[in-house]
Amino acid sequence: MGFLWSPQPIVIPRPEIPKKQIGVDPSMPVLAPRTEQVLDTHKVTATGYTAGVESTGKGPKHPQYGITYSGVKVRRDKETVSTIAADPKLFPLGSILYIPGYGYGIVADTGSAIKGNKIDLYFPTTKQVYKEWGKKDVEVQVIKQGAGKCTEKMLEELSEAIDVYKSVPDSWLDKAV
Q1: What are the C-alpha distances in Å from 91 to residues 47, 148, 168, 176?
Q2: Which residues form the signal peptide (predicted)?
């Protein structure tokens, strides 16, 4: 076996990595919030719900199918943020919670059975509700107290921020909504 020798150093260019992925594995799940970001913790009973008749009484042909109380479309995104339902007296619309085993949720919905220390986590299908969640008692972390509204723009901006940082950045928490 022979070796090649060259008086000039061989420079191998590094592949360009998009800025949002530098130092962050894109397949990595979201990170729990840092201790200093947690405003409060609450022990709640968390159940799963869907947009379907079994949870909302609405079928796919209903004009409000998949639309939350706040007017945004339901979503489940393990890598950014999902819509959840809560009692607005405890967690006002727009509140951001970290739910262990589920990820970040933003309160966008309410429910007739969701009163007090109960939350409902959105899943696309009943099969996913039963397979991935069911009913659990969990201690949720409040990251931001909502101001009583949740908009598509808020969801998009929060999703983008979490996608980049894998958690909610302080700069986003300081924003007035």
Answers
A1: 16, 9, 18, 17
A2: none
For 61, the domain range is: 35-172
CATH of the domain at 158: 2.40.40.10
Q: Over its length of 177 residues, how does the chain's per-residue pLDDT go in tens digits?
A: 454 454 555 544 443 333 443 444 444 578 999 999 999 999 999 999 999 998 888 999 999 999 999 999 999 999 999 999 999 999 999 999 999 999 999 999 998 889 999 999 999 999 999 999 999 999 999 999 999 999 999 999 999 999 998 899 888 887 755
122: Cα within 13 Å, side-chain hemisphere: 28
Residue 55 domain flag: yes
Whether 51 is covered by a domain: the verdict is yes
How many beta carbons lie within 10 A of that of residue 40, not counting itself?
10
Alpha-carbon distance values, 98 to 18, 64, 139 (Å): 27, 27, 9
22 in a structural domain: no
Domain count, the chain: 1
